[in-house]
Amino acid sequence: MLTTEEQREIAEEVGRYPNTMAAIPEALKIAQRARGWVSDETLREVAEVLGMLPAELDAIATFYNLIFRRPVGKHVIFVCDSVSCWIMGYEDLLRHLQVKLGITMGETTRDGLFTLLPIACLGACDIAPAMMIDETLYGHLTAEKIDSILAALIHETD
Amino acid sequence: MEAPLTRNIRPNEMPPDLKAYEKSGGYQALRKALGTMTPMEVQKEVVDSQLRGRGGAGFLTGLKWSFVPMGTESRRPKYLIVNADEMEPGTFKDRLLIEGDPHQLIEGLILSAYAIQAEIAYIFLRWAYKTAGRRLQTAIEEAQAANYLGRNILGSGYCLDVSLHTSAGRYMCGEETGLLNALEGRRAVPRAKPPYPQVCGLWGKPTVVNNVETLCNVPHIVERGATWFQRLGAGKDSGTKLFGASGRVKRPGLWELPMGTPIRDILEEYAGGMQNGYRFRGLIPGGASTDFLLETHLDTKMDFEAVTAVGSRLGTGTMIILDNRTCPVGMVANLLTFFARESCGWCTPCRDNLPWAAQTLAAIETGRGTDEDLEILAFQCRMMAPGRTFCALAPGAAEPLQSALKYFREDFQRHIDQRRCPWRQP
Ligand SMILES: Cc1cc2nc3c(=O)[nH]c(=O)nc-3n(C[C@H](O)[C@H](O)[C@H](O)COP(=O)(O)O)c2cc1C
Ligand code: SF4
Ligand code: FES
Question: Which H or E run includes B283?
Answer without folding.
Answer: strand B280-284
